[in-house]
Amino acid sequence: MCGILGGNNNGWDYEKGIQALYHRGPDGQQVKYLEGFTMAFARLSIIDLSSNAMQPMTSCDGKVTIVYNGEIYGYASLKKDLEKKYEFFSHSDTEVILNAYMEYGDMFIEKIDGMFAIAIYDRRTMQLKLFRDRVGIKPLYYYFDGMNFAFSSELKAIVATCNTLDFQIDYTAIYDYLFYQYIPEPKTMYKNCFKLLPAHELIFDIQHNKIVSIGKYWKMHVNTSKGRRKKENVLCDELRALLDESVKDQLIADVPVGTFLSGGIDSSIVTYISNIYSPDIYAFTIGFENPKFDESRYARILTDRYKLNCVEKILADQDIHAINQKLKVWYDEPFADTSAYPSFIVSQLAREKVTVVLTGDGGDELFGGYTRYQIYDNWMKDKELDSQMLSDMCRRFNITDLFSNKMKKRYINTGLEIYLPVIFLADKKATENYRKQWGIDKDYDVTWYLKKYYKKELPPMTRARYMDFKTYLPSDILTKVDRVSMANSLETRVPFLSRKIIEFAFSLSEEECCTSKNLKGILKSAFNKEIPDDLLYRKKMGFSVPEEYLADKRGGIPITVGILKSEWKEIDKNVENIGRK
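Above: the chain sequence. Below: its structure as C-alpha cells.
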C-alpha cells in the first residue's frame, strides 16, 4: 500500500506533493516526468521489497507507465498466464497489473480483484487512465478545472502539489456533511476536486486537456427475491470456503501480518481463519476503562480459546486527548466519526510489530449487522406509511420537524422516509442557519446521495444493506480506516470485501442472508462451531468512544470537528482551514 500522485501542469511542485504522502510510503519516494504528464509515488514495501518493485513502473517498450496503491489478490495465477508472453523483472503485483494492461487493455480490470487505486499513463494514445476498486477501499482523488488535471491518494497532496491554484470551498459539500457526518462521494470540500467513485474508470486526454469519459466498469447483481432457494448448510459451506480463500490470499506478504480483533463477529472470524494459516499471528485489541464501551473482554474469549498472540491496550481519556487535533491532518476535510481515534491508536499499536493487518470491515453491510436494520424492517412491515408516521419517527429519535412538509411529501410511501431519521442526526435549526449563511438554495435536496442508491424494489433488509454498502461503507468506514492506518504507515486488508464474497452476499435472498430477528444469520450459522456463542449472539456495541473521553476539559465542548450537537462553533472556526496543515 502506498501513495500515488500525478498531474499535467509542469509548473506544479510534485516533490512537495509526494512528501505530503510520506506517511503512506516511508520506504521511498520517486517522481517521474513523462511527455505531457508527471507521475509520483511514495512506497510502503509489502510484496517484493527490492528496488525492482519501485514505482512509477514502465513497460519494457517504454510506452506505458503505472503508479498504483493497494494489493491484488490471487495475482499469481494471472502472472502465470502472462509469463507465456511477457518477461517479469520483479515479484510484485504492480508488474502483473502493468503487463495485464499491455495484454488486455482496459479489460485487464476484469482479470483482477483486490483493493486498488491505479493510474496508467499510455503514451500510445496520450491518455491517463484512473481505476478505483469495486468497493472504494482505496481512495482516489482528482482535480479538474477544464484545463488543469491532477490525481492523488489524498486531498492534501493535491493541495500541496497544485501550488498555482486557488482552492475554493464547496459549501454544498459542507452542508451535506452536517447531515451525513462525512462528505459524500464524489464530492470533496473543494470545488473542481472529486473522489473517483468505486468501480469507476476515468480517462483523461493529455493532448487536449479534457476528460474523455468517466464510467462504471462493474455492476453488482442484487437478489430482489424473498424466501429460500438453497439449503442453509449448502450456503454455509460456500461462505466458509469463500472466506477461507479470501483470508488465505490476503495473508500473503513479505512483511509481518496481524489482525484487528474487536471482539465482534467479523473480526473474530477473520482472526480465527488467519490463525489457521499463520499460527503465530498477532491480534491487536483496544478497550476502554469505561466498561459500557469496553469490548476487550469479548476479544479475550477468542484469544483464550485459540491461544492467540494478543496485544491489548486499554484506553483512558488522556489517550484520546493526546491526538485530539489530528482529524484535520488525517482526513483533510470534515469527518465526524469519533471511532477514528481508537482506530488510530490500535493502528499505532499494531505498527510496532507488523506492517499489514486484516480487518473485519464490511461484514455488517454484506450480512446485515446494524441494529438500525431492525428498526427499519419492523416499521416497513408493521406500519402504514404516512406523514403522521414520519412525525412519530422524528419524535422518537428526538429530531422533531427535521424535515419540511415538502420533503415529507417527497418520500412518503417510498420507505426512505423511515430510513432518514435513523441516520440523520442533524439539528434542523442549526443546519438551516448554515444553509442561509452559505447561500444554499432552500430546495437543495441533501438526500441526493441516499436516493442515488435507494432501491425500492428490494426487500427492506436487503435494501438497507445495499444502501449502506454503497454509501456509509466507502464514505465513512473505509475512509476512516484507510487514513488512520496509513497515518501509521500500516496497510489494512479487508477479507470480507473480496469480489466473490460481495457477489455471494448480494445473491442471497433476504431470508437466506439475515432477518430483523436474526442479524447476520448466515454468518452466525456458518461459524457457530468455531466462534463461541458469547461472541456470536451478544448485543452489538459498535466501536464508539465514551462521551467523557471527547469532552474538552477546559469547556466541555467535544473535541472532534463533527456534528455532535454542541459542535457547531467548531465548524465555523475550522472549515476554512481543514485540509491544510
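DSSP finds 26 helices and 17 strands in the chain.
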